[in-house]
Amino acid sequence: MSRIIPPQGPQRVLALAQLTNSVGDGAYYVCSALYFSRIVGLSPTQIGAALTLGWAVGAFVGVPLGHLADRRGPRGVAMLLAMVTAAAVGSFLFVRSFPAFLVAVCVYACCQCGLAAARQALLAGMVEPARRTEARAYMQSTVNAGLAVGAALGGIALNLDSKGSYLAALAMDSVSFLLAAVVMLWLPAVAPVTAGPAKGEPRLAVLRDAPYALVSLLNMVMLLYMPLLSVVLPLWIAERTEAPGWTISALMVVNTVTVVLFQVRMAARVKNLASASRAVRHSGVVLLLACTGFALSAAGASPWVAATVLVIAACVQVLGEMLLGSGSWEIGFALAPADKQGQYQGFYGSGTAVARLIGPLLLTTLVLGWGTPGWLVLGALFLAAGTAMGPAVRWAERTRTTPSRRSRAAAVLPAPARRGAGIRE
After folding, report:
1. CA 20 to chain centre
2. Are the C-beta atoms of 88 and 107 separated by less than 8 Å?
3. Residue 299 contacts by C-beta under 8 Å, 6 or more apart in sequence?
4. For a disulfide at 355, which of 84, 90, 223, 335, Cβ 3.0-4.6 Å?
């Protein structure tokens, strides 16, 4: 259990907050599409357009919200954004028109992007640099466990298939964000950055940091694996393979359980930027192999052969996913100045929003339109981005100034402060 439950202290409290709202998110992800179409009465085109615009706006505002976390303190900003997210999800219970839905989705996506940046800044302020990747791995395991529980609860709502069951699932998600905000009260406060930008330095310095932008771009390309399980593979299995329908659920279970059990072990191998770059490079190779396996699943005429190939490919894919996470988290934290973690994490995390934005359309066009060649092109894209990450990280590392390195070490709160009395053990 030591590889699943975070160490006692702030990490465990932050993980509990993450677990709380990820349970609600799991139910939301399972039920939201059918709720918006069947209950709200929106067309698939309207839902897709609103989500696309919402995540586009969210990716844009992630940096200024992260900067706000730097200047006002990440704990307070994270709590505020969690509460506004709760209100946005709660508004879904009442919207019955496309304009209202569009506004609610934009608020929801902006708060989600800002909340992710504030949480990352909060983690960076509470945990010493050498332990941040490990702490982030615990968070990822926690998120997957929560999503699995929430998805099971959402499955009950789907089975009931009533307006009341859908409303209950969304209400649970709204309440989960409020509870997460309450849990964060038990975290120690991380001091905000009081000094303004240096003379001649822009307020949002990350927007001028070309090496960090390149690293973020490569990470965004690697994050295109995200729509595979949720969007691309269900369509691929249904349209191009003979695998039985339950295979889709099996792949989700394989992915979730594997991340919960092994993500922390995988992250323990990453100690510095060199090992992080190596992990991302290996991830590119592994994801290429996974794409090849998914492509081969269409070749067999037997349902059991197709299902077996898909499960094996999914095991390979989740290995690549865990390698990428371990390396990516270290790179995102280590290359960010200590006094600008919020805005840098907001920029780095925008890759997730962009992957959600363009990934489904890009990957369905590539894979379902081209078939096996499309899978190989996608795998080659992963390989190229993973291979390029090492040189990009070395370039970014050379541009980090000595004062930034000193300030990064100084940003970590002294041990007594990190063990503040505000933590209830």
Report:
1. 16
2. yes
3. none
4. 223
Compute how many other C-beta atoms are within 10 angstroms of the C-beta atom of residue 102.
18
- On whether both 217 and 355 belong to a single domain, the answer is yes
| DSSP H/E element including 40 | none
DSSP output for 235-246: HHHHHH----TH
Q: Is the pLDDT of residue 408 over 60?
A: no
pTM value > 0.70:
yes
* Identity at 82, one-letter amino acid code: A
Residue with the two structure tokens 């640099």: 129
Q: Which domain holds residue 110?
A: 1-193
**Residue 423 in this model has a pLDDT that exceeds 60:** no
Q: What is the mean pLDDT of the chain?
A: 87
Number of independent structural domains in the chain: 2
252-287: pLDDT as tens digits: 889 989 999 999 999 999 999 999 999 999 999 999
CA distance 374 to 313: 16
Segment 18-73, tens digit of pLDDT: 999 999 998 998 888 889 988 999 988 898 889 889 989 998 899 999 999 999 99
CA atoms of 160 and 395, how far apart (whole Å): 54
Q: Which residue has the tokens 């390195």?
A: 405
The CA radius of gyration of the chain, in Å to the nearest whole number, is 21
Inform me whether the pLDDT recorded for 87 exceeds 50: yes
Same domain (yes/no): 118, 180: yes
Do 253 and 281 reside in the same domain of the chain? yes
Read off the tokens for 267: 């992250």
Structure tokens at 232: 């691309």
User: ∠ at Cα 328 (221, 89), nearest 5°?
Assistant: 75
Are the C-beta atoms of residues 137 and 88 closer than 8 Å to each other?
Answer: no
Q: For residues 234 and 228, is the Cβ–Cβ distance under 8 A?
A: no
* In the predicted structure, residue 414 carries a pLDDT above the cut 50: no
Residue finishing a domain among 160, 193, 226 = 193
Query: Does pLDDT of 383 surpass 70?
Result: yes
Residue 403 is encoded by which pair of tokens?
Answer: 């004062």
